[in-house]
Amino acid sequence: MNDPELRRLRVEDAPDVLAAFTRASDMARQGEVKDLRSAITYVEGLTELAGPHLAFAVVYQGRVVGVVGVTVDSGNRNGWFWYWMHAAFRGRGWTSRAAATIADWALGEGGLHRLELGHRVNNPSSGSVARAAGFVQEGLERSKLLIDGERLDVVAYSRLPGDPLPVVARLRLTAD
């Protein structure tokens, strides 16, 4: 099996984004994508040149199967780090590897000093990805999110340039 590669997300990736969103109900937390038009709008919002987002596609056999992104606070050189993977491609370790690759890039060539992320306590897989990508748990944000009428805690993480590097293999990041 070949490894996926990483590149910048493009508007022409919208059909693959739609496929990921329609495959699993948990993708609704990532944004509102229900048809091709809304998938195009979602991708356009992540790829605006003047926007705060840096979105990278996880590409496997010519298809976008996931996205890793950083929403940049340029004034503080911080970034909110996030990721998702198409349900059919989860459990392969690709999200961790992609997250480690993009976090390395963001804290190096990307010029950021701090990356932050959080995950719901009922989503331990996201915590595994965060830790594998070198993020350090900082705390617990109690009752932060209201989902389906239930208050959920969020586990908070960060990664700084001087933190120990993750041990997972990195993916190839292309310049395009």
Tags for this model:
alpha+beta, eight-stranded mixed β-sheet, Aminopeptidase, 176 residues
Would you summarize the structure shown here?
By secondary structure, the protein is of the alpha+beta class. 26% of the residues lie in helices and 35% in strands. It has helices spanning 14-23, 36-47, 94-107, 124-132; strands at 5-8, 53-60, 63-73, 78-85, 114-120, 136-147, 150-159, 172-173.
Mean pLDDT: 93
- In total, the number of domains comes to 1
Strand content: 35-45%
CATH homologous superfamily grouping: Gcn5-related N-acetyltransferase (GNAT)
Order of helices and strands: EHHEEEHEHEEE
* Main sheet specs: 8 strands, mixed
Radius of gyration, CA atoms, in whole angstroms = 15 Å
Q: Which CATH C-level class is it? A: Alpha Beta
Kindly describe this structure.
This protein has 176 residues and is of the alpha+beta class. It has one domain: Aminopeptidase, CATH 3.40.630.30. It is 26% helix and 35% strand. The chain is built from four helices and eight strands, in the order βααβββαβαβββ. An eight-stranded mixed beta sheet has the order 6-7-5-4-3-2-1-8, sandwiched between helices. A hairpin with a 2-residue loop joins strand 6 (136-147) and strand 7. The longest helix has 14 residues, at 94-107. The radius of gyration is 15 Å and the shape is globular. The two termini are 23 Å apart. The mean pLDDT is 93.
